[in-house]
Amino acid sequence: MRRREFITLLGGAAAAWPLAAHAQPVRPVVGFLHYGSHDKLAYLATAVRDGLKEVGYVEGQNVAMDYRWAEGDYNQLPVLAAELVRRQVTVITAGGNFAAQIAKKATATIPIVFTSGADPISSGLVASLSRPGGNLTGVSFIAAEIAVKRLELTRELLGRTGAVAMIVNPNFAGAETEMAAVETGGRVLGLRTERLSASSTSDLDIAFATIAQKGVDAVMVGTDGFFIDRRDQIAALATRYRVAGIYPFPAFPAAGGLMSYGPSLADGYRQAGVYVGRILKGAKPADLPVVQPTKFDLVINLNAAKAIGLTIPPTLLTRADEVIE
User: Fold this and answer.
1) Same domain, yes or no, for 235 and 161?
2) What is the pTM of this model?
3) Any idea what the Cα angle at residue 217 is, between residues 212 and 221, rounded to 5°?
4) What does the alpha-carbon distance between residue 37 and residue 73 come to, in Å, rounded to a whole number?
5) For residue 325, what are the contacts with CB-CB under 8 A and spacing of at least 6?
6) Which of 10, 104, 187, 233 is most deeply packed, by most CB within 10 A?
7) pLDDT per residue over 26-83, tens digit each?
8) How far apart are alpha carbons 266 and 258 in whole angstroms?
9) What domain range includes position 100?
10) Dist. CA 298–CA 316, nearest whole Å
């Protein structure tokens, strides 16, 4: 080959390279911001990916994921949210009300899809459920309303009046609303309610020791992610102090807790993934109504009941959606 022909060929190839690179589609990036620890809650990230698949997005093919786990340390969330904003991710999925609050402070332009146990209106995430407005929408677990139902199940479980402790995280936006609902429901049902607070693992140890001192029959916890991330510890403490635990999500009895009534966390995160996919296709968060669960499952762990010497009433067992044996 002549020198001039070689130079011409080389120059043509060089000119083509930028075009080839430009032709490669740019994958949107979904930021996953979560309060919890990856080793305990990785299945929630899987649920988001499942939702994305439903609308045609597969990680590693036509969408990328950038995961940020606070590992249970809420103080890390502002730093992690800032990292996602600096990267200019396409959408942020915020797991938990507190993560959503932090993400909202971090950006007013990047769309945010949240999952929240606290009321998204009263906590300031959205203007309304039907027309969220702004750059946020997501899934609400309607915690306060379901807390009252769990209290009714507690009364049925005990078969008598008694005392119920409610452990709340004072840093959780929905703590006061949930506690107020439980106190009101307790008065109607003739159950004495005790309020306890916990925002660390040592606080949980103290709370359960206090429960034992007060002679409490049953314990409930708030829907805050702090408790979900520490469900193993909570279930173990309930067994140790031989107190009936009634929890907001099926993840608790799966970890050894006694009973739960509420929506599936995994399904809520799947729905969030669907919304993320719709936003990637061009939908605006302001136009996507906040999703509320319509199915609530009663899950009973018979092994946990046996461990504390409790017999589950047949009426509850027959209504249970799942019984762990």
Assistant:
1) yes
2) 0.85
3) 85
4) 9
5) 302, 303
6) 104
7) 899 999 999 999 998 999 999 999 999 999 999 999 999 999 999 988 899 999 999 9
8) 20
9) 29-141+264-287
10) 9
